[in-house]
Amino acid sequence: MIPRARHFVAAALGSALLIVPAFTGIAHAATSAVASKVYAVPLARTLADVKRVADYWKPDRLKQTDLYTPATPGSGAGSTTSSGAAAGPAAPAAAAVTAAKRTNAAAAVAPALPRQGTAANTMGKVFFRFGDKEFWCSAAAVAARNRSVVATAGHCAYDSRTGKPADYWIFVPNPGPNGGAPDGIYVGASISLHEDWSGKGDYDYDYAFVTVHRGFTWVAGKDGASVMQDVGRLQDNVGGLGLELSKKPGTYTVTAFGYPAGQQPDGTHPFDGKTLLKCLPGTTRYTVAPGRDLQKGVELTPCDFSPGASGGPWVIAYDSTRRLGSLAGVNSLTWNRDAKGRYDSVSAPYFDTTTGDVYRRAASLSTIPNVT
Fold first, then answer.
1. pTM
2. What is residue 71's predicted lDDT score, i.e. its pLDDT?
3. How far apart are CA 252 and CA 207, in angstroms?
4. 182 exposed, middle or buried (CB, 10 Å; 0-12, 13-18, 19+)?
5. How many CA atoms lie within 13 A of 36 on its CB side?
């Protein structure tokens, strides 16, 4: 029997994983890096853009986040079936996408504590819109030289089916009940991703590194209205996970985190999506899913995450005291290998030197100096 996902931190919301049928093929994919095709898609560029997004996420709307839909891979419509993205998605608009110059692969990045305190709060939720509907996913802060990078799944930032980035994208680390944001709200400035996610929904690249602006909190003004108060950079406030690249599956164990909320195959709903959960450290192996163009995926077993954990981090050498470790993947797909009542594993794209190029792009971008 698969160990149940362990409760980790109370008072959070939820995200989603795509439900896929069991696949029987497991291949040891080549680990050599392919030529990088890294893109930066702008979100909120100016102070006016930041305030527009902030005004959308006023406290009254944040209080409704329990009602929003977990984002599903490849589907801006939020479907939780295995139908996935439609064939031939639209290409990104040329004016909105900027090609990044190829760099040397990023070396491993060390985890970082916040400027104050002895423990980090890197994990949280992202909220955004596709079209006229609100969605959410899991995510985590990653240590970076600009101290402003969030890692999540590609489908939690960019809809490859329609060829469009998310609107009104924010990250809320360590979210509290009723829309609480004790460590600030961070508006997305730019998405860094691989063109094979944006262009064709290739699940080998279902990851995104989002550069975020300085954070803010809502405070009461003199007239009782909500007013933005700048709280500084993300990493300064919550710390950042490290980053590990090109780790051979089977040579390490990893702890997966997320906010599962969806239905299990037997129809039960054991998780409420309001609590950060973890699967105990498990073994990893290569996996493939031809229907998703996944040729070099990494599968973690056992893990019974249900829809509600997309974008949640895979952490190597997790230190429960400092609440830090190094990022080695993000939740992308769930699996029901034994065709029984519970999901039994989860998979992530393989983090290789190409992933390092995407990360480095996000870590190099600057943001505006103040958001109020």
1. 0.85
2. 67
3. 21
4. middle
5. 24
How far apart, in whole angstroms, are the C-alpha atoms of residue 191 and residue 366?
13
User: One-letter amino acid identity for 365?
Assistant: L
Using DSSP's 3-state secondary structure scheme, residue 179 falls into helix
Confirm if 366 and 147 have CB atoms less than 8 A apart: no
Residues facing residue 134 across a β-bridge: 129
Distant-in-sequence, close-in-space partners of 239: CB < 8 Å, separation ≥ 6: 111, 112, 113, 114, 119, 120, 121, 122, 141, 143, 323, 324
Cβ neighbours for 55, distance < 8 A, ≥ 6 positions apart: none
Hey, is 154 helix, strand or coil?
A: helix
Structure tokens at 239: 């710390």
Burial class (CB in 10 A: 0-12, 13-18, 19+), 225: exposed
Tokens of 368: 């505006």
Q: Which two tokens stand for residue 286?
A: 């290569």
Q: Taking Cα atoms as reference points, which of 354, 359, 325, 44 lies closest to residue 204?
A: 354
Mean pLDDT by 10 residues, the chain (372 residues): 41 37 33 59 97 97 84 41 26 41 64 96 95 92 98 95 94 92 97 93 96 97 91 98 96 92 85 88 90 91 87 96 98 89 93 95 96 94
Q: Look-up: residue for tokens 């996913």?
A: 137
Locus of tokens 């300064």:
236
Residues facing residue 289 across a β-bridge: 294
Cα separation, 107 vs 334, in Å, equals 29
Task: State whether residue 144 is helix, strand or coil.
Answer: coil
Segment holding 217, helix H or strand E: strand 215-220
